[in-house]
Design goal:
The chain has 55 residues and is an all-alpha fold. It has two helices and no strands. Helix content is 75%, strand content 0%. It starts with a helix and ends in an 8-residue tail after the last helix.
Length: 55
């Protein structure tokens, strides 16, 4: 649960930085990969399941 909260805060921060990039206050070529990476981590952790991999 703690990991989910941290990723959620990172997601909101990266969206904020992306908005700053849209307002030309930060370069978009820096903010876009950050948003992509945080979205990837968030979705990967949300879809991660404990699976039985065999013996």
């Amino acid at each position: 649960m703690f990991k989910f909260i941290i990723l959620l805060v990172l997601l909101f921060l990266s969206i904020f930085f992306q908005l700053l990039g849209f307002m030309k206050l930060m370069p978009l070529y820096i903010t876009s990969p950050i948003l992509f990476f945080v979205l990837f981590l968030f979705l990967h952790s949300a879809n991660e399941r404990k699976r039985f991999k065999g013996f």
